[in-house]
Amino acid sequence: MISIVTTNPPRVLVPLANGFEEIEAITVIDILRRAGVEVVTAGVGAEVVEASRKTRHVPDTTMEKAGDQGFDAIILPGGQVGANHLKKDSMVRDCLLRHARDGKWVAAICAAPTVLQDIGLLAGRRATSHPSVRGELTGAQYVEERVVVDGRIVTSRAAGTAMEFAFKLVELLRGSQSVAEVNQGVMAKL
Predict the structure, then answer these.
(1) Could you tell me if residue 6 is inside a domain?
(2) 20 lies in a domain?
(3) pTM score, two decimals?
(4) Which has fewest Cβ within 10 Å: 29, 30, 109, 141?
C-alpha cells in the first residue's frame, strides 16, 4: 500500500460546486468519516450548494478559507455541471496543482476527472471517468476499470462506483484494516 499521509487523522478536502452529484460526494464523505478521516467540505462560489438532484447542502467552509489549510488529499465529486464549475474555479485548480506538486493524493469521480485533465494532471496516466466524458481525457491512458490508481491520482467512473471509490480512498489514507472495520457496519460488496 502506498501512503504519504502526514496528519493523524488524515485530512481531506471535498470541494462542492453547484451541480455536484450527491451520491458521489456524500458517499465519499460518509465512508471517510466512518474511517476516522477528517473531511472538510468547501463551497465553491456559494455558501449553500445545490446539487444535481436539487438537494441543498451547507459546506463546512468556503474554498477561499480552506485553500491554505494543510490537507492530505483533495477529492472531487462528479456531476457534469458541478465538474464544469470546478474547472472554472482558480482556487480549486491552484489547490489541485499544489497537491499534485507536493505528492499528495488527488481523486476525482465521474465527470470530475476532466478537471484533472484540464490542468494537465492526467497526462500519460491511467485514468477512468464516466463514459460520457471519455473523449475529453485525451492526455490519459483511458481504462474502463471501476476505480483506477496511478501514482497519487485516483479516478472512478460514476455514482454506481462511489462506494468502491470511497473504500479505495480509505485504504490509501488509513490502510486495509480500516476498510475491514468500516465495512463490518456498512456491508458493502467490495
Answers:
(1) no
(2) yes
(3) 0.95
(4) 141
